[in-house]
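User: Predict the structure for this protein chain, please.
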Amino acid sequence: MPALTTKEIMEIIPHRYPFLLIDTIEELEPGIRAKGKKCVTYNEPFFAGHFPKEPVMPGVLVVEALAQAGAVAILSQPDFKGKSAYFGAINSAKFKKKVVPGDVLILETEIIKMKGPIGVGSAKAYVEGSLAVQAELTFAIGSQEA
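Assistant: Here is the predicted structure, written as structure tokens:
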């Protein structure tokens, strides 16, 4: 049973369809780490143009999914309830494996540094145990706009 369902994820982060890129959070240590899952289906809106004859999930969207997992980890802390996590930086991103329809992405983001409203996460996405994407993500915590 997942630690958080899609509905519970949406209570923590502001993302919604078609930009909510996490289905469940399987493991959560608030402020420390989150491990999520994304079941990639052929019906994803980006596959219509990326690429019609060889559908591949854009690497930047895998990075976004990793950031959303990190945002769940950070924003699940009481001090940040109701806030948003924005990108401050994306460093050392490496794309090792294509992500295609039918893949199940395992998204792991560990918060390795936090100072006030700024956090840094070590993020890795896996498909069938193989590393697909890795990056270091910087988060900036701010208010949600109404």
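The chain has a mean pLDDT of 96.
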